Amino acid sequence: MEKSKQVETSPNNMTCQNLPSLLSSFVDTFIDFSVSGGLFLLPPNSNLGPKLNTDASPNKVEPILSTPLQTIYPAPTRLVAVGDLHGDLSKSKQALCLAGLINAEDRWCGGSTTVVQVGDILDRGGDELKIMYLFEKLKREAAEDGGTIITMNGNHEIMNIDGDFRYAAPEGLEEFKDWGIWLCVGNDMKRLCDGFGGLIEDPFDGIPHEFSNVKPELFQGIRARLAALKPEGPIAKRFLSRNQTVVVVGDSVFAHGGLLPNHVEYGLEKVNEHVRDWILGVKEKVAGELVKGSNSIVWTRKYSHELAKDCDCSTLEHVLNTIPGVKRMIMGHTIQEGGINGACSNRAIRIDVGMSKGCGNGLAEVLEINENSQIKILTSNPLYQKNSENLRANPQDGHEPFILPKHGQKQVEVQA
């Protein structure tokens, strides 16, 4: 009898009944490898914080809901803020290299640094998924080294979850089309054996096969993008549900567009919780004041205007005074053509420099804050590299600029 058992379970007699469940994870890892541009992602490490079902095909949201998103972080010895990336993997890596966060092999080398990326990874470029996968890999590597990477929701993440693809580049649609193909291949592999990967849900279920006023060659890319990014879609659930919409790190508060008094009154933790629940499909709607409309957290430009007289500095002061221990707000969303700069006596720091080829093609810059709360601009612009120790003041703010010529920086506002 014992000999018979050994024959049944030997590798040469492997069947659907005794196929190890580990192979299901292998299929998911293979899909990740194919979609991410060659990143090999092992199952998530337990020291990353909440266990968030980061496998390619999770169907349950309970583990994600069991632990709230962290909203407040202690002051680190080094904090780096990265602006809008808009689907440009090359510029994303340039920004991370500039801050000494990744090496030539794209591995984390930033030690205990805390990094905040302020949103808008999506749209305008063709490497959106690759950037999300890169940040997931780096989150794991950073956690093993005592570092932290925080990714945030911008208005373009919200638009895509809502099915608004007006600013998706053709290359971006093609990237999602490839994702959809690989996902279907993986699901077909799992279906070869009953129960191989558990219940397999089809993310394309209910997605239209045709769209009015859309070129036929774009249909499959749009279908895949809808399937991936809709509330409870695989990519929305895996990546975007883990993004914060507002976060406090030390004495800095981050928001993609900015915070207004009603957002603080709503409760910063509740903001993150309610936006996450909408992305997960647990809530059908999310309050418009949080993520929709010109006065929402991801859309407002009240602190991003070129001229100081047009920035609502009194409202900013009120907001900062109502968040304990916070003395500055850091935001992206509105391109600062002259580079990272400060307004409202440097209480508003604007870090979107339009790095992406699809949205300005600006030179890479990041913001650094040390343990003494001193700010430095790290720039790839050779005109300013030697003097980048100080924050550029907005000359219209009543301060002489430290770095820029007398005419100062030009603020650029682009659609969405």
UniProtKB/TrEMBL annotation:
Signal sequence annotation: none
Region (Disordered): 389-409
Ranges for domain Calcineurin-like phosphoesterase: 78-201
Pfam families membership: Metallophos
Domain of life the protein comes from: Eukaryota
PANTHER family (UniProt xref): SHEWANELLA-LIKE PROTEIN PHOSPHATASE 2
Identification of the protein by name: Calcineurin-like phosphoesterase domain-containing protein
Native species: Cinchona calisaya
Lineage: Eukaryota, Viridiplantae, Streptophyta, Embryophyta, Tracheophyta
